[in-house]
Amino acid sequence: MRKQIFAEYLGVTALLASVIGSGIMATNLTSDVGLQLIINAISIIAMLGIIIYLIGPISGAHFNPLVTLSELYFNRISLKVAIGYIGAQFLGGLSGTAIANIMFSKPIFFASHHIRSGNGVLLGEVISTAGLLGIIQILQNQKKTSQAPVVICAWIATGFFFTSSFIFANPAVTFARAWSDSFSGIAPSSVAMFVVAQCLGALIGVFGSRTLFIKE
Fold first, then answer.
1. CA-to-CA distance for 23 and 195, rounded, in angstroms?
2. How big is the chain by its Cα radius of gyration, in Å?
3. How far is Cα 93 from Cα 14, in angstroms, rounded to an integer?
């Protein structure tokens, strides 16, 4: 189990290094917000594809407490494994954030001032998370998990540009992004409502997608 937990830690560390690092790099390269978003999105999507493809066979490539909890609910993993995974995900998020901040000569941790709030933004986060969790369950039910690197990255890619929240869809990632005052950051005061929206979205995605496979 230690190997799987370390794999989750390593994957989320890499993901957050990409999320934060590319956000800082984007603002260093251009003042065009649209171009900054494109730079950030490309880096995150590429990194996510890499870590899902490489780490998926080891740990299942959850990288997200909500994914882990859904796998626990459907008895695909044990409670002991779930606790280990979730701890590794949060620790990996902080590690990746610290690495990115240090690479760009920033403080190891410094709180973001980027407030993300409002009903529209929170609805965007519900939709982002519902889509992500729904896709994962559909892949599981159709036995197409080998295609997860492509399908999940496609959802993240479109989510960057059609949702109002820029598709966080992950409590561990959201918490970690609060500790870098950069393009990718989120103010600590905005984190709680984002997580609530993500939990609601996860419930909608998991149980909504299950209706597609009810035998009539």
1. 21
2. 16
3. 8
Note the Cα 126 to chain centre separation in Å: 13
**Digit-coded pLDDT (tens) for 167-182:** 999 999 999 999 999 9
What's the average model confidence in pLDDT over 188-202? Answer: 97
Model confidence band, residue 212 (pLDDT cutoffs 50, 70, 90): confident
d(C-alpha 27, C-alpha 38), whole Å: 11
pLDDT for 215 equals 64
**Got the DSSP string for 52-67?**
HHHHHHHH----SHHH
Residue 204, phi-psi category: left (phi > 0), alpha (psi -120 to 50), beta (remainder): alpha
Q: How far apart are CA 56 and CA 11, in angstroms?
A: 10
Per-residue tokens: 1: 């189990």
Both tokens of 2, joined, read 């230690």
